[in-house]
Fold each of these.
Amino acid sequence: MQADPGAGLGAFNQADPRELAPQLDACLGVPRWVHTLLEGRPYPDLPTLLERAGGLATGIDDAELAAALARHPRIGAPPTGDGTEAGWSRAEQSGVDPSDAQVQAALREGNAAYEQRFGHVFLVRAAGRSSAEMLALLRQRLGNDPATERDVVREQLAQIATLRLSALLGRLGEGAA
């Protein structure tokens, strides 16, 4: 059973910022984003915190976006490492079926085409999506112009960040963070 993220809001609001910042960094990947969320405490409720966290993604600049993207593995490629961030990536990509060689090959080709076109890793909220769904989104987004794609990536980053923040709050609510 997954922990209730609302239960961790009090712990989030009261946590020492020096201890909470690295945990938020694993969720968000942008120092200014982390700082802004920490400075906004206390949050009155979970929806306000998640809305604020997601909304901050639209304001990150291109350098911050590039830094955040560098921390995400390619769709279909197993995340490396054993930290919290890698664990979240593994869980988020659990819908990728490594035994489907045809889809895996198409994802590799699509990732390469995307990276050549846009200069960074393809980012999509993978949680709850199958390999085929992610492949279809990758192919569709290859048709975007760069400015549109940056906006789509920021929205995807916001979705990933709020999912990860919810998981962190659940852990804080259990006292396990």
Amino acid sequence: MASSMSNHQGKIVVFGASGHTGRFVVAELERRAMNAVLVGRDADKLSRLAAEHPGMDVRVASMDDASSLDRALGGASLVIHCAGPFVDTAEPVIEAALRARAHYLDVSAEQRVTLATFERFAEAARAAGVVLIPSMGFFGALGDLVATAAMGDWISADEIRVAVALDSWKPTQGTRLTGEKNPGPRSAYSKSMLTPVEDPPSGIWHFSPPFGIQEVVAFPLTETIVISRHLRSPEVHAFLNRTALEDLHDPNTPAPTAADESGHSDQMFLMQAVVRKGGEERTASVAGQDIYAITAPLVVKAAQEVLESDLRTTGTCAPGEIFNAEEFLRALASELPSLHLEVQLTKVPL
């Protein structure tokens, strides 16, 4: 299928295009008139998706067939990887992106995958002249960007805490599969090193309305990894409200369903970062709708900035390291009616 979309920004390959998050990513690429190739292993699903987005090419590829991955990346400038569980899929797609000398972004919330992207592939990415940005989704990038905005002009901090409140968490099948593939304890960043959280502590968090006071449980995901890679703080911790965690662990919790024409569910979120230094703290927060759908504008905006900017950085980068966090979030909030950003960079005595 010949593409009729603008190609001045370079060709973007979307792995897992027909999945729940992948479909939001494809729609966002079309909204921004960006040239996309839809890639996955199911030709029928891809064809049906392509019929909804005229002008986008389709390529079938399998994670265990390197030659099919190379064909899928032919002519690509950038890869957006949405096909989890990433513990199975990230390595072959990253390696294919490096062979193609294409930038790579994924939306993984899997700690060991994001850590491996930094530790195993950074040097190869620099040699290829490309940038790898792992975890450019809700869990990971959004937490990192909010924490970086809260950090402001501080060079270092004593502690960074990120807390998420969801009115409900209706997990996708992909989220459930990811949980099964990653059963071990998650790691917080404590005393300047990653430390497994064997018995997650709980506490109380004072969220803004409508959530208010909530019980939260330590729930470190990839924001812990990406924040600790570039912000100087010996302590980085992440929490989730208990109500959402109970939804996630309940096998009877249904998958998300569309509440509007865009396909967004009606699940609401609030994410807050608190950065403490001595007796002072700074905060930033974002609130919006649908943690899966919000990943699409996050990763697509990042892709657009990578392709359009005079990028001099290569290797593996955290989102808050490569982008101006507050500008990125404010620009995103200006485009999305459901996203609300509040940044308090004034020092507040504790």
Amino acid sequence: MHKQVMGCLWSQFTRALAEKIVHPRFAGVIQPEEALGKNMRFVTGEKKDSLGAIVRFTLLVDEWDGGIADVRFQAFGPPALNGIAEAFCEILIRKNYDQAKRLDAEWIDKQLRDKKDKEALPQETHTFVNLVLDAVEDALQECEGISLPEEYIVTPVQAVFEGGPYPGWDELSQSQQIAVLEQLLSSDIRPYIELDAGGIEIVSLTEGRELVIAYRGACITCPSSVGSTLQAVQQILTAKIHPEIRVVPDHSFFTRD
């Protein structure tokens, strides 16, 4: 099985998966002493399959809010295992440990797709997806006892992933609405903007309907930030949050030096 994945399946890999295999950003290890004096909890999880493939994750989790501040992986096995572990690290950053526990294989596949409607991972790689998920799950078990922010609500991850409108949107407090929007930005919007060295942040939300955003990095000077990119953000939020939500860019950021 592993020899097959190492060989002929390269031709079946998406460009996104191949890029993560060749140019990983999260490969490595976090040492326990890196948590000292930072109010961070060091956690780790490791799994091995019957054919000898091994993946290990080390994470720093903020003791204040349960947020995953940093994550690294070590993988020994076929290239696909490395690419899948890298993709999951990208997803984990900015999540808190409760959100991370509810992520599944579909999120990894989505992260690795070249086309939105075409699955990324061949059947032969599914064992590596499970290996990665199980290793992270082991690490997250060590996060029990860390308090989550008062405004945090247990966002139905699959509901946001599959589409809205978001249930009970108008009954949420403003801080809860912003928390939901932050999760959607992190899962559906930021990964693609960051590919071109851009960024997007929430400035304000008024009555659950008008969302003011600010662009960062390359997005500030990119014409699509008020064109196709803005339209894409608007479409995602109206489809998955509320049909009446309106996205407004903060133009003051476009004039900064």
